[in-house]
Amino acid sequence: MRNNKKEDFLNMSDALSDFKAQNKLNQGFLKVDVNDAWKEVMGPGVMSYTTQIKFTGEKLFIDLSSSVLRQELSYGRSKIVDNLNKHLGKEVIKTLVLR
């Protein structure tokens, strides 16, 4: 018979973290999280001009279809990086490249 004490159970977030670490899935999940963060932080207006989002290492590459928007976003590049990292809960992105 099983003893159902609270300390016998494993927290679901801990179990998922262990699973991701054991199967080397952290980088893939991080890419998905960064894509979602870009969509949520920048909003639907910027997303309508975003053609591609690519995250490799500590660099986030964003392809935009509007040169005017690219220029405007380049002025606030460091603020965008700060907002994305704040949304992710840790410093993941070091460099933002707008193309």
Brief descriptors of the model:
99 residues; DciA-like; 4 helices; 17% strand; alpha+beta; Zn-ribbon-containing, possibly RNA-binding protein and truncated derivatives; GMP Synthetase, Chain A, domain 3
Mean pLDDT: 90
- Estimated share of beta-strand residues: 15-25%
CATH class categorisation of the domain at 30-98: Alpha Beta
Largest sheet: 3 strands, mixed
CATH A-level architecture of the domain at 30-98:
2-Layer Sandwich
Protein name: Zn-ribbon-containing, possibly RNA-binding protein and truncated derivatives
Pfam family, one: DciA
Organism: Nonlabens marinus S1-08
Can you give a write-up of this model?
A hairpin with a 2-residue loop joins strand 1 and strand 2 (59-64). The termini are far apart. Helix content is 55%, strand content 17%. The longest helix is centred in the middle third of the chain and has 22 residues, at 26-47. The chain has a three-stranded mixed β-sheet. The protein has helices at 12-22, 26-47, 67-75, 77-88, and strands at 50-56, 59-64, 95-98.
Brief synopsis:
This protein is an alpha+beta fold. Helices cover 55% and strands 17% of the residues.
Strand and helix layout:
Layout: H1 12-22, H2 26-47, E1 50-56, E2 59-64, H3 67-75, H4 77-88, E3 95-98
Parallel strand pairs: 2-3
Antiparallel strand pairs: 1-2
Helix pairs in contact: 2-4
